[in-house]
Design a protein that fits this description.
17 helices; about 0% strand; mainly alpha; about 425 residues; two-stranded antiparallel sheet
Amino acid sequence: MANTNATTATLSRTLPLAAALKDAVLSGAVAFGLFFFMIGLRTEQGSTGALEITTRFQTFAILVAAVFVGSFLRTLIFGRGSIPLGRAVPPSVARLFDGASRFAGPALLIFALLVPVLFYQNRYLLDLGILVLTYVMLGWGLNIVVGLAGLLDLGYVAFYAVGAYSYALLATHFHLSFWICLPLAGILAAFWGILLGFPVLRLRGDYLAIVTLAFGEIIRLVLLNWQNFTGGPNGISSIPRPSFFGLPFADAEGSFAATFGLDYSPTHRVVFLFYLILALALLTNWVTLRLRRLPVGRAWEAMREDEIACRSLGINTTTTKLTAFAIGAMFAGFAGSFFATRQGFISPESFTFGESALVLAIVVLGGMGSQLGVAVAALVMLGGFELFREFQLYRMLVFGFAMVLIMIWRPRGLVSTREPSLHLGERKA
């Protein structure tokens, strides 16, 4: 009997060890196949201009070994099931975070308002703040289409480009001010959103994603090849800058600095652009929150959950889809016009599929339908990109690894819950 128990104990220890070793070998083999040409070999331009192959086998071996050891320890400790990361957080700490989450939105808003004051002398951080707020606005606009209406849009950058080129062409050819071109760019982008909505009314899921992806590429190719109208690959330069109620940010009489008795500084224009994109982003957030409480917002969410049930309730899914595409595209047009006036130069290279993928990743990782989650995801992702700027070769690898971890740990996004749009009866926790 004692020998039987000893044999059983030995087998119980051997089986997890064998399973862990098997998973580690399989993971190591996959990592070997993926990283050999990505990390192990690298092509560089030699002195003669020809491409030369250089090897980085030491880095390649370290990565494969790390994957092997990580997979072995993961299976040995947690098994092949899901990793219970939520249990590692004590309940008291979880309750503390839940209580603090109520103040996260106001805290982020106060911090955003104080950024130009705290970092007035740091031009880099001000530009980074403008970039983050631009993607927050884009994320909130796409959140209407993807997060609320449930329509997977992979060509959102097309409306971003329409807004930018609309502003640039109107400002350069008709010499209209920024405040006139801004609503016109949003209206034109919304019009193109409706044009996209009509052909895809009967499409859902993967088919809708493919069509919207094609639409984004069509817009980019049109901008690239219609040289007489858009400038082609050369783009449009000398785009007028916005003014503060007619006061330009220049070192001259009648400028912003001279009118208010200030010493001229180029930072004045940067601070104004920061508060301008902050106001546009807050406008997007306010309109979205208001629309969610209206019948059209509840129709979006009903269509996201079940389109067939939505039709059975008498909801017109045609107008529901078109309004989602149009309003989401309008905010992308606003963001595009701001991008054009901030850069002073635009070209088709700024509106590639990578931009759509980045904005969609912000919406998905932040939590579809969550306004706060989108803002946090944009801050983390754009800030994370800048933190890893020194590690140019590995930043995308680390970024992809972080995305995988978030999808495993928080499959519904960083902020997976949100305030209900409508309460039936008394409000409950």
